[in-house]
Amino acid sequence: MGLLSTLNIIYIVLIIIGFTIFCYVRMIEKKNTFQLTPKNKKNPSICILIPARYESKVIEGLFQSIQEQTYQVNMKDVYVIIESKDDPTYELSKKYHVTPIIRKRLDLKRKGYALDEAIQYLKEKKKVYDLYFIFDADNILKEDFIEQMIPYYQKGYDITLGYRNCKNGNESMIASCSTMTFSMLNTLINQSKINYHGNIILSGTGYFVTQELIQEWNGFPFHSLTEDYEMTLHSILHGYKMYYNIDAEFYDEQPITYQQSKKQRIRWIKGFINARKKYIPLLKEKLKHNPKNPGSIRSEMIGVIPYIFMVTGVILFILQNLMTAIACFIIGNPLGLIYLIYSIGMVFIIYAVLLIFSTYLLDKEKTTLNLTETVKINTIICHPFFLVTYVPCALHALFRKNIGWDRIEHRVTNIK
CB of 182 within 8 A of CB of 164? Predict the structure, then answer.
């Protein structure tokens, strides 16, 4: 039994190491030194790019919210990227006087390819804008979204991301818990990064990119399963100036079933892994050349390592003590009850920690997140279980080779 006690100590040490690395990351993020170069354009020209393959059920909500913006948008400068004129989205684009772009390379399925085709189309038409906003078809913009974003272009930021709220978080626990994923990314992680001039993590859409970057890229070169995270790593590598703007609010539809959410998260994790394989060696090399954002580079190189340590320590602790308890019960050893208590105790401790974390997160979001009070309470209770399901999603992503871009049908046309 001495060996088992030693192993338990090792597992706890793994958890402590993970937490220590987590704290270290928060410290090194402060070591960024870039300076902004303000732009003097009072009314920059803008366009909006919307990948919208068969999204006629929801895209009118986005069109209407663009029409209602306090910063005037010429609807002809809104570009909807579709695959065929047979798509009902095509007729809706005509109704709202937006410009449809029919894709040519339908064998290239991912969002990044669609955006690249759109930018190549604009180049052919000699259309140049100061800002390129990117949205999904299911998004809805708060009326002052673009007005709130313009000042950060004028301050000199290359990329600025808005605050993602939920359209349908009250529909199911999966939807509300999925919403919390973006709360973790934005309210906890990105909000802290901008305090130290750190490079934020892009998630989904709801951001602008400047003309200078579009010209530098000669299109939209991010074509992985998670083009947003690939773009994040590219931005860190090249030291782009990024900002998270909590005052620019837009709404997004979340999956309502576990299977939809599972499929989505497996794709995210697979894309995360693939993008890191490409960029981490480049980031390591960049550190040798005195970059202006060493904190962001080191932080992203570490990535999820702290969480891997903590999760591994917890899982091994629970499994070992549970298996030992079962073995003791089989042979009639009274120590089985003690090991069972260890195992169950760790489960309750982890649930309590995640419960406190979920409560804290919702408290940070209490004035903004589109959830009823009843749903918030239920979400606090269920969110720890939702977080745990990231473990099987991660294992699935690790061991499954062929993960493609599967369309998740959107259907919510307004904010619920």
Answer: yes
